[in-house]
Design goal:
The protein is α/β, with parallel strands linked by helices. It folds into 2 domains: 222 residues, no CATH class; 52 residues, no CATH class. 36% of the residues lie in helices and 13% in strands. It contains 12 helices and 10 strands. Strands 3-4-5-2-1-8-9-10 form an 8-stranded mixed beta sheet.
Length: 315
């Protein structure tokens, strides 16, 4: 049987946002929710919660207080909005590379607006889905977006962007807290059990981001891959057993506090590249230089190219 060419997958995280503007980290988002209930949680309480509780538990707690639903809290506080989607040169360069699919754990639309500044999240014409019900009819996914993506076109190219942890247009799709992560893991397990024969032989339908992740070459940039990202860790270890699986490359500076995570990733056959950068606690780190070196590694050593000729000078 002829070997099929591996798809190139770019997986982005919130580091791409923190890099360019005063956008909120996950901890700051949780803290903002707690601030609305000052009577129950003063500053000292909030600091203890964020320091001592796992992220998913702190997130769950932040949603449990008050009478508003998760959807209402997200919509009323605008807690997940990016600061006017500030221009990001690194993101521009990454998007211009010859990736077949773009994944993001972010709920926001910095990728879409970088590709097409006029992007409107309320315009549903860009929403694509491969989801079918038991009768074979096309259906929308309302909670977990395993088979839903945004297809964005500009004057030159068409891009597929997968919000693997949900997106703002549907606040109920946002994966935030223990309940959401548990539900996502169940959905991932159910999908894998249906799609893969004998647990490791792929059917190659490529109907979801899970298929692309397991079979393609995945390059992870700006995502910390914390241990609470249960779905991604589960898939990394599953990927090792999938016949003909693609490779996974993870970019992150060396750091004493991340030593255990990097060793765990290596056990999962992930190539961890710090590119000679080390992050020292309480010292300022040059992320600009680090991401510049990521761009160089992707083009010089990983074989990625630029779609647009004006970026060729960077290769």
């Amino acid at each position: 049987m002829a070997r099929t060419k591996k798809k190139k997958i770019l997986l982005l995280g919130n580091g791409m946002n923190l890099y360019v503007a005063n956008n909120k980290s996950n901890s700051e988002i949780i803290d903002d929710l707690f601030k609305k209930y000052k009577r129950q949680f003063n500053k000292v309480d909030r600091e203890k919660i964020l320091r001592e509780l796992p992220y998913t538990l702190a997130a769950t707690l932040s949603l449990s207080i008050g009478n508003k639903t998760k959807k209402e809290k997200i919509e009323s506080t605008k807690l997940l909005e990016i600061d006017k989607y500030k221009e990001n040169d690194v993101l521009k360069k990454l998007i211009q590379m010859t990736f077949d699919e773009i994944f993001t754990t972010n709920y926001t639309y910095e990728v879409e607006t970088t590709i097409k500044p006029s992007f409107d999240q309320n315009d549903k014409s860009h929403i694509m889905t491969s989801y079918r019900d038991k009768n074979g009819k096309t259906r929308k996914e309302s909670k977990y977006f395993l088979q839903t993506w945004n297809q964005i076109s500009n004057d030159v190219e068409t891009y597929n962007i997968w919000h693997i942890h949900g997106e703002l247009r549907n606040p109920n799709s946002v994966v935030y807290g223990i309940t959401d992560y548990n539900g996502l893991i169940c959905k991932v397990n159910n999908y894998i059990n249906k799609q893969y024969q004998s647990g490791n032989t792929v059917l190659l339908n490529n109907n979801s981001w899970i298929d692309h992740f397991l079979n393609g070459d995945v390059y992870i940039v700006g995502l910390g891959l914390s241990f609470y990202e249960y779905d991604l860790w589960q898939l990394l270890f599953k990927k090792m057993s999938v016949e003909g699986h693609g490779k996974t490359v993870f970019y992150e500076p060396e750091s004493d506090k991340e030593w255990a995570k990097h060793r765990a990733l290596e056990l999962a056959k992930v190539k961890v590249y710090n590119l000679g950068h080390k992050q020292i606690q309480n010292e300022e780190f040059d992320y600009h230089k680090f991401y510049d070196d990521v761009i160089i590694d992707l083009t010089k050593k990983q074989g990625l190219q630029y779609r647009n000729e004006k970026y060729q000078k960077h290769i």
